[in-house]
């Protein structure tokens, strides 16, 4: 590697106009750094990582792109992770909004700026792949001392732009290494991979956004036309262009010899201006037609292989129906607006490969909701629930990951399958994820990134595929801020957040009471009625233990009621007694735990600390009480 001193000298020579053997994109970027941004090559600047709140804004804006790009980016990462590559998805301002790297090298990656939240705009970081790509709009390799700032001259970075369907650069996909061979040519394959992945993301984006239009896929060769075309254009029912990938723009621009920078202006043009077809010809280009017939001519007489996809509406014959909330999800509430919003959002996530994070106070129904989402899918596989707070820390690893035969003293001789593997093909529900020890968070992150689990003591990873739903009563963001929860895991888990309202804020208490009473009556084996006075007591209670406390109260009342009529005296103490009275110890022992929990703001860990017991003990007590 060149020394910082000789690097600065070279930059100064270029600044004076001396000839240089560097690639043109690198030289152009150096000159922008020196002349436009007035960066001082002698002042090395560490990589800049955005503060949490700012990063969240960038991520929120890029949410859809991150979701659409996720599977392509994960696919690329699987190919390159063995070569210690890191992947960064940055937004159009150069801020890294998604990141994949080996968690083992976290500290080094963060220091080098190859991390979530790093800003790689050219005016801040100097010549770098993301920054140069944003300015030029072209894929670029910035290898080692191509970087402007001496802090970055050990890195090799290759980036490709991602354009939105109207032609604006919306993101940059970057693949980087902390250490690499000296020759720049070593990064050509990286360049090819990153450009291909960017093209696929653009295609997914186009397909997702233009469901009511035709999609025309084009390539200069028939190979992979249906699965990985060079270019794609969406066309509306009147034959006008409604969007395109960047490859699509190039294909059109070539036909009329148009220059760069006019992509946006092609939207709204008739496709027949560029290609020898109109919208009525598109059905002939659909899959299933003979390959030889799926060729068309451009207005400049070049031949292109083409493949058309009909609008979704046309394929179904009817307009796309609004999502209906499946029955299991519908039964979660009885007219509460906040819950209805949760139910609608949840119904859109059923059967999708999007991690869901459920937030809500203890007993608010997080696991119940997770099961309802799972059960709403007809082919859902197993539902494996893991309470990270209830399993003692020393056992979590082997419970989750399983272990190989003879992995440790006392291990079962045939080894043991872990809960993650047990969820293969189904749903893994990680309850109280905020209580997962930091070391295991890194291991879980690896499972999620790689789709593989390695049992304790095993040498070979096993592939796993599951839907992930996590839950926490902690505000995970606060845990991230205090360093108790990994930020990268947090971002991976909460692709979609569902926040359950606490029971005291719900406006459907009457409906809920009736619904739960019917269920308790079934368990009880006899009909139950609630007196008006008992209902008033239930409605006056603040429900610190939420739905669990309500279910529990009704079970207790059912047990005390003599003739199936529940009166106020049948309710647990904390509900039936006037607020100022000292409780006589008449009720089932242990129910006061709900009040104690409320005093701790619903925080099980805090209550465990105050009682001087394990979190798992508190959970066991709560569960025992709610099991009636
Ligand atoms: N919508 C609902 N209708 C009927 N009963 C419900 C509903 N939601 C939750 N419950 C009941 O409330 C109790 C607590 O629910 P659940 O275990 O899902 O809460 P949680 O938020 O996951 O609790 P924790 O934070 O302690 O893990 C359970 O007994 C469950 O059966």
UniProtKB/TrEMBL annotation:
The gene is acoR_1. CDD domains: AAA, HTH_ARSR. Residues 1-22, 564-588 are annotated as: Disordered. Keywords: Activator, ATP-binding, DNA-binding, Nucleotide-binding, Transcription, Transcription regulation, Two-component regulatory system. InterPro entries: AAA+_ATPase, AAA_lid_NorR, ArsR-like_HTH, GAF, GAF-like_dom_sf, Homeodomain-like_sf, HTH_Fis, P-loop_NTPase. It comes from Hartmannibacter diazotrophicus. Residues 332-559 form the Sigma-54 factor interaction domain. It holds the Pfam family Sigma54_activat. Residues 7-21 have a biased composition (Basic and acidic residues). One of its GO terms (molecular function) is ATP binding. GO terms for biological process: phosphorelay signal transduction system; regulation of DNA-templated transcription. This is Acetoin catabolism regulatory protein.
């Amino acid at each position: 590697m060149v020394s910082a001193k000789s690097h600065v000298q070279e930059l100064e020579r270029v600044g004076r106009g001396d000839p240089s053997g560097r690639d043109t994109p690198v030289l152009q970027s150096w000159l922008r750094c020196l002349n436009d941004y007035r960066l001082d090559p002698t002042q090395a600047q560490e990589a800049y990582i955005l503060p949490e709140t700012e990063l969240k804004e960038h991520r929120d804006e890029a949410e859809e792109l991150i979701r659409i790009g996720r599977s392509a980016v994960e696919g690329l990462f699987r190919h390159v992770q063995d070569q210690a590559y890191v992947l960064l998805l940055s937004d159009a301002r150069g801020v890294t909004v998604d990141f994949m790297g080996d968690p083992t090298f976290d500290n080094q990656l963060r220091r080098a700026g190859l991390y979530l939240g790093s800003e790689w705009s050219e005016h801040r970081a100097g010549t770098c792949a993301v920054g140069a790509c944003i300015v030029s709009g072209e894929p670029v390799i910035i290898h080692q001392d191509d970087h402007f700032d001496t802090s970055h001259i050990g890195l090799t970075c290759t980036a490709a732009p991602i354009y939105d369907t109207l032609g604006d650069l919306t993101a940059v996909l970057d693949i980087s290494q902390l250490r690499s061979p000296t020759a720049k040519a070593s990064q050509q394959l990286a360049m090819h991979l990153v450009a291909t992945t960017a093209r696929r993301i653009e295609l997914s984006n186009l397909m997702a956004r233009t469901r009511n239009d035709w999609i025309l896929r084009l390539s200069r060769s028939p190979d992979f036309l249906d699965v990985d075309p060079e270019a794609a254009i969406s066309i509306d029912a009147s034959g006008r262009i409604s969007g395109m990938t960047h490859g699509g723009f190039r294909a059109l621009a070539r036909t009329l010899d148009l220059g760069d920078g006019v992509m946006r202006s092609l939207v709204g043009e008739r496709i027949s201006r560029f290609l020898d077809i109109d919208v009525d010809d598109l059905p002939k280009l659909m899959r299933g037609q003979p390959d030889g017939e799926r060729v068309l001519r451009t207005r400049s007489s070049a031949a292109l292989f083409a493949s058309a996809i009909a609008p979704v509406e046309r394929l179904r014959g009817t307009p796309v129906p609004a999502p209906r909330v499946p029955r299991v999800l519908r039964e979660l509430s009885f007219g509460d607006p906040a819950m209805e919003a949760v139910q609608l959002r949840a119904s859109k996530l059923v059967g999708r490969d999007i991690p869901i994070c459920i937030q809500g106070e203890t007993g608010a129904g997080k696991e119940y909701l997770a099961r309802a989402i799972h059960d709403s899918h007809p082919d859902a596989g197993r539902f494996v629930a893991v309470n990270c707070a209830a399993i003692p820390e020393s056992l979590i690893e082997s419970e989750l990951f399983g272990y190989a035969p003879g992995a440790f003293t006392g291990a079962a001789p045939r080894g043991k399958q872990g809960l993650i593997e047990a969820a293969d093909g189904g749903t893994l529900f990680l309850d109280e994820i905020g209580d997962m020890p930091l070391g295991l968070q890194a291991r879980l992150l690896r499972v999620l990134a790689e789709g593989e689990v390695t049992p304790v003591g095993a040498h070979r990873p096993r592939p796993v595929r599951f839907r992930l739903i996590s839950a926490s009563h902690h505000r995970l963001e606060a845990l991230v801020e205090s360093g108790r929860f990994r930020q990268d895991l947090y971002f991976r888990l909460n692709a979609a957040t569902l926040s359950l309202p606490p029971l005291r804020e719900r406006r459907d208490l009457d409906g809920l009471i009736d619904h739960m009473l019917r269920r308790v009556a079934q368990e009880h084996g006899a009909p139950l009625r609630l007196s008006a006075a008992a209902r008033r007591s239930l409605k006056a209670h603040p429900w610190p233990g939420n739905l669990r406390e309500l279910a529990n109260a009704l079970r207790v009342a059912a047990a005390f009621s003599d003739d199936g009529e529940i009166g106020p005296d049948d309710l647990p103490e904390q509900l039936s007694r006037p607020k100022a009275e000292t409780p006589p110890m008449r009720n089932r022992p242990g129910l006061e735990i709900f009040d104690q929990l409320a005093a701790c703001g619903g925080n099980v860990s805090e209550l465990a600390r105050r009682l001087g017991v394990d979190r798992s003990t508190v959970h066991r007590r709560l569960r025992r009480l709610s099991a009636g």
